[in-house]
Amino acid sequence: MNSSTPASLNSSEKQELIALLEERERRKRRRKLFEVYPDTGPLRRGLYPKHLQFFAAGTEHQERAAVAANRVGKSFGLGGFETALHLTGLYPQWWPGRRFDHPVDVWAAGDTSETTRDIPQLILMGAPGEYGTGLIPGDKIAGNPTHRAGVAQAVDTVRIAHASGGMSMLGFKSYDQGRKKFQGTAKHLIWLDEEPPEDVYSECMARLMTTNGMMICTFTPLEGLSNVVLKYMPEMAPTVSNEPLLRPDRLG
Ligand SMILES: Nc1ncnc2c1ncn2[C@@H]1O[C@H](COP(=O)(O)OP(=O)(O)OP(=O)(O)O)[C@@H](O)[C@H]1O
Ligand SMILES: [Mg+2]
User: Which of 50, 77, 137, 158 is the most exposed place for a label (fewest CB within 10 A)?
Assistant: First the structure.
């Protein structure tokens, strides 16, 4: 047997090897962003033409929505992935979408504080206690996030190191806070995961006006043809007929 095989290691060398393997695994878990949409393999990006189309549409459209079925990769594969790229500026070489060359101010929001914590926050930051294992690489999370009062482990804001050398800012919000909580400063990107009420949507658009910022929505249309859905699919609006229900010539 070759003298460098693990079987020939003494116990302290084995301990060292185990520690090195664990450290390699730990680092890998904190670099998830670089493993999504690979060139090859079972999860290769060639299998996701609609997702790539959604990214590319960002070069032309200020507002984009993935209004799609459950479990097709809306939150992780679209909203979460794109948000992590803009926050960090770590665009892969194949990226077909819009690029910001400066730090960005971003909101990610969901229905309630709890769902925002359990979906967009989990996707971007990783589980509480393991921040850095989500799509934002661990070494890009700068300092400790601030947390929301009254909701266990819900992040309020967190600073993210941007490739330009500056700091992006990520804030989490939820629709149940009401429209007024969406007033405030300008944003470069807002990601709304789950369908927003119309007034929240409009308030968010106002936050994007001065920056020519981007709106990304990812949801399954549980509310049917709501006004927010109709903004994106006006052709689905029910047509109103001018025909009277009872034509006078048919009366009596
Ligand atoms: N591009 C991808 N590469 C690898 N895994 C992915 C990708 N997209 C999604 N996944 C995996 O599939 C799971 C479901 O994806 P995601 O949460 O984005 O779906 P969704 O459409 O938002 O679902 P829901 O309808 O529940 O909101 C994720 O937890 C993630 O692990
Ligand atoms: Mg989702």
Answer: 50
Residue type (1 letter), 154: A
SS3 of residue 27 by DSSP: helix
CA 72 to each of CA 18, 53, 66, 226: distance values in angstroms, whole numbers, following the listed order = 37, 15, 10, 21
For 234, the token pair is 């006006």
Q: Provide the whole-model pTM.
A: 0.91
pLDDT digit string, tens, across residues 202-251: 999 999 999 999 999 999 999 889 999 999 999 988 876 666 656 556 55
71 Cβ closer than 6 Å to some ligand 1 atom? yes
Rounded distance from Cα 70 to ligand 1 centre (Å): 9
Cβ 92 under 6 angstroms from ligand 1: no
- Find the 80 Cα to ligand 1 centroid distance in Å: 10
